[in-house]
Amino acid sequence: MVNSTHPEAPLGLTLSHIHHSYDMPSGPRLVLDDVSLDVEPGEFVALIGPSGCGKSTLLRLVAGLEAPDAGTLLADDTPITEPDPSRIIMFQDPTLYPWRTVRGNISLGLDIRKEKDPEAIDAAIRLVGLEEFATAWPHQLSGGMAQRVALARALINNPRLLLLDEPLGKLDSLTRLAMQAELYRLWKSQGFTALMVTHDIEEALLLATRVIVFSPRPARILANIPVEWPSPPHREDPRLQELRAEILRHLEAVMAGG
To answer: pLDDT tens across 81-92, in order?
Structure first.
């Protein structure tokens, strides 16, 4: 587990004509409106859009935590009907158990499955650079350290698809920059497919191979923007600023009713 070469191929996704709504006191509220999207194995795709438009709902559908009202969700041509260890979701809050140490929180999935693999736990701890904090309690960790624990807890399951729901959204700016670099490094080394919700356009462009821009609720895809870098991206690259401006134009146009 947590090998430099991933033991299983990353998952590909096919989302076809997805519709989803929530029952509200005033009646059904449409959240996703005819969303179709293909994600190639090993891609890192970022989802950008206004708050509340339905991005996190889409992640929950892909995770198998909810079922769409209509449309087809496939992971490697297999219908998604329930959660599966190959598809792991990581939320904005690390949700660590306060009565478990760093090591205990990381081993949670193994413990639930009654699997003993201390070497895998050690490898996961090393992977996120927390060797000196293996026996620390959650209240002794900084926000960035807690997110590293949550990331290691996800990666120890060797996900073929990692779903990231604003995992860095509550971190201070310096810690967020460090965690962006860490997430990019882990994606490159572990080889999983990644689907990430973020409100930070620069973050999306620095991490992703493609950025999907959504409209306000109900979410429709406004733009599908490939991000191609000859080497690890640099924040001062003029192309990054051009892509940032392009994404903003899409969002500003739809928010203005254009």
So the answer is: 999 989 999 888
Q: How far apart are CA 187 and CA 209, in angstroms?
A: 11
For residue 91, give both structure tokens: 């939320």
User: Would you tell me the crossing angle of helices 143-155 and 118-127 to the nearest 10 degrees?
Assistant: 140
Cβ(193)–Cβ(161) below 8 Å: yes
Please report which residue ranges of the chain form alpha helices under DSSP H: 55-63, 102-106, 108-112, 118-127, 143-155, 173-190, 201-207, 238-255
Q: Which fold has domain 13-255?
A: Rossmann fold (3.40.50)
Q: What is the rounded CA–CA span in Å between residue 9 and residue 29?
A: 37
What DSSP string runs through 30-79? EEEEEEEEEE-TT-EEEEE-STTSSHHHHHHHHHTSS--SEEEEEETTEE
